[in-house]
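Design job #97: recover the sequence.
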């Protein structure tokens, strides 16, 4: 089966991405703090703190999405409820980030975002396809598990 390895890969990638996003934003916050430069009149301390807070928030978001993927891999069950919503939102975020990174960073970052998007969608779709109920047989064939009660006999005419 392809389901479990995909879930493991998605979990590892999202945990690594959570750490990378948090570290990058924390580093940018430190750079802004040490530069003491203002951007359009904004307070440098506020920019530094908000960059660090944004990094922690997005890092925790990706870590939570990674935890959902990890639970999917361990249980071998499709995500449900909030976990499914988190994975769908992570796919949307990666699609939007992929569109932005094409112009700002380059095609390599775009390919990474599209790869993660594809992995998340593959995770969601493979579990969805496997968990659908089997079609029930029709009722018109004998011995198909229909009603054990036989139909009433036709009345006899004397």
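Job complete. Output follows.
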């Amino acid at each position: 089966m392809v389901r479990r390895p995909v879930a493991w890969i998605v979990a590892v990638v999202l945990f690594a991405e959570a750490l990378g996003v948090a570290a990058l934003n924390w580093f940018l916050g430190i750079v802004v703090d040490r530069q003491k430069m203002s951007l359009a009149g904004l307070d440098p301390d506020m920019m530094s703190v908000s960059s660090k807070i944004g990094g922690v928030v997005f890092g925790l978001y990706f870590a939570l999405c990674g935890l959902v993927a990890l639970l999917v891999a361990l249980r071998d069950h499709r995500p449900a409820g909030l976990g499914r919503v988190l994975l769908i939102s992570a796919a949307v975020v990666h699609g939007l980030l992929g569109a932005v990174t094409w112009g700002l960073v380059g095609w390599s970052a775009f390919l990474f975002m599209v790869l993660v998007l594809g992995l998340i969608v593959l995770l969601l779709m493979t579990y969805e396809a496997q968990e659908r109920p089997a079609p029930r047989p029709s009722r018109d064939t004998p011995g198909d598990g229909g009603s054990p009660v036989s139909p009433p006999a036709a009345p006899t005419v004397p």
